[in-house]
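I am writing to request your help with a piece of structural work I have in hand. The matter concerns a single protein, recorded as an amino acid sequence and a row of backbone structure tokens. Could you please explain, in whatever detail you think fit, how the structure tokens follow from the sequence? Thank you for your consideration; the sequence and its tokens are set out here:
>
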Amino acid sequence: MDFEQITYEKSDGIATITLNRPERMNAFTPKMIDEWYGALWDAHTDPDTRVVIVTGSGNRGFCTGADVSGGNLLGRLQDETRARVETRNFLRDGVQRIPRLVSLMEKPYLAAVNGAATGAGMDMASMCDIRFAADSARFGMTYVRMGIIPGDGGAYYLPRIVGTARALDLIWSGRLFGADEALAMGYVSAVVPADELMTYTREYALRLAKGPAVAIQMAKRLVYRSAGVDVDAALDLAGQAMYVAQGTEDAKEGPRAFAEKRDPEWKGR
């Protein structure tokens, strides 16, 4: 697949998706969504890819949501001349393809938030497993400023990260907040100088990519699936995941390396 509005690179077991419309603060278009989905699908299905990073180009924006210039995307909601039957699925068939695919991914999905992440751009960051932010990053659930609601999963992801009351405050107010506040509320896991963000994120990703891939992926699956069931069902899921993990070469290498007082040589299988 050829890419025009993102860049996509793979090396050392890491796939990096960079949103590449810096002149629009990486606001997305239908074309960018198509390319983003294609890159995610490739990373999801590539057996050599173990970690995925998403970031934005430039230093102003990670992603500021949908590009509404020229009546794009959200502007269609306000097009009274278009029959609702024709537009009722535009979110499902458009931007919502990203979180639906992300929900299938067992590989770690990391956000390097290099600038403003607002509206659907903040939703795009929220669907990542872990977020790292530049000290210049800004965040905001700005939907309310346009008289609409989170359409890309924000009402699902954000309460699970920061809690219901804080999520509602951010959604209702639409206020902007900085990286330090995002760290204090647990929305991001680290704040680093802007010029160190990708180095920091990639070093973290490399540690995961060099680790026991099956155990890391099964742990992710277990964490997310356990959140929606009771403790008895969660323990059953853990038993099933442990059965798979214990059958890997890495599960044999770990105890062997411990006994031999050396670093393990993970095979990822």
